[in-house]
Write the structure tokens for this entry.
Amino acid sequence: MSDLCKNWTQWLSQTRFAALTDEMKAQTIAWLESVGDAVVNMAQIQPNDNVLDIGTGTGLLAFKAMEILENLNGDGKIIFSDKFSDCLDSCKDFLDKNPTNVKHQFLNASCEDLKLPENSIDKALMRSVLVHIVDKQPAINEIYRVLKPGGFFCAFEPIIRSNTRYWELLDPKFISSFHEFKDAENKIMSDSNDSLCNFDDLTIKQNLNNAGFSDASTLLHAIESKYIVTKEMVLPWFISPPSPDRPSMKERFLLFFDEKKIDNYISEIQNYLEGKEITIKTNSVLIHATK
Ligand SMILES: C[S@@+](CC[C@H](N)C(=O)[O-])C[C@H]1O[C@@H](n2cnc3c(N)ncnc32)[C@H](O)[C@@H]1O
């Protein structure tokens, strides 16, 4: 585990916002809400549905689904599931303070072994979980197994390997060792054993078809955001871990260069980008599939 981040709830509540200004944090939260709404709306939740949120984290999707079930006033149930118990504890704390009449259950299970009977779930929801699993096929097979025939799998995943790379923001004239760092970053982003970047919309669609889903659709979405860089923003890009148990970009660069060289690269980036407007391209996929 990184020194900077001890568990998923800390990563979700603090670490992921570390490099952001207040304005960018507010935009990110609004974007997360809209992504959550998109996933939950795709599920077309019915009053008696058994809804499973896989890798619930702090409950972004589960609480939205719960609100829908509450309004529908049926007999439906929401299952908060996660591999890490700190996430379930955080959702429990919230529900202790905000009681509900909606039936719910907490399930400490990994996506590859959900510990639920087959054909028991009407709607399986997920956001940004497959991106943390190296071999996505067993996880998708397991989701297929627990869904009832006719049940939906609705999800959102970031497609990190086609996002803007750091070197694309730079001018080689102002950065010593530009080409060495460009090559290293390209190698890091094409590592087939790295869960973060070993997939895209096409491989996910193939995984869904392999599992047996009948009408898998994967809708690729690209957004461009522009912002002005401050010096303080740059260091967290390199030292913040992408998840609690994964190395930061700086730690990955240590496989290629010594620390002094990396620190010099970061410092040159700070000097070069300070005050400049940059455009960042981020890609994601919305998934809908019926068993
Ligand atoms: C980026 S967070 C997303 C949390 C939540 N779905 C959201 O949208 O805010 C990733 C979540 O996946 C969970 N997770 C990671 N690997 C998992 C696995 N193999 N099975 C189930 N959950 C997993 C983590 O505990 C964490 O809660």
Remarks:
- The longest helix spans residues 22-42.
- Residues 8, 12, 54-58, 60-61, 82-84, 87, 110-111, 127-129, 132-133 surround S-adenosylmethionine (CB under 6 Å).
- The radius of gyration is 20 Å.
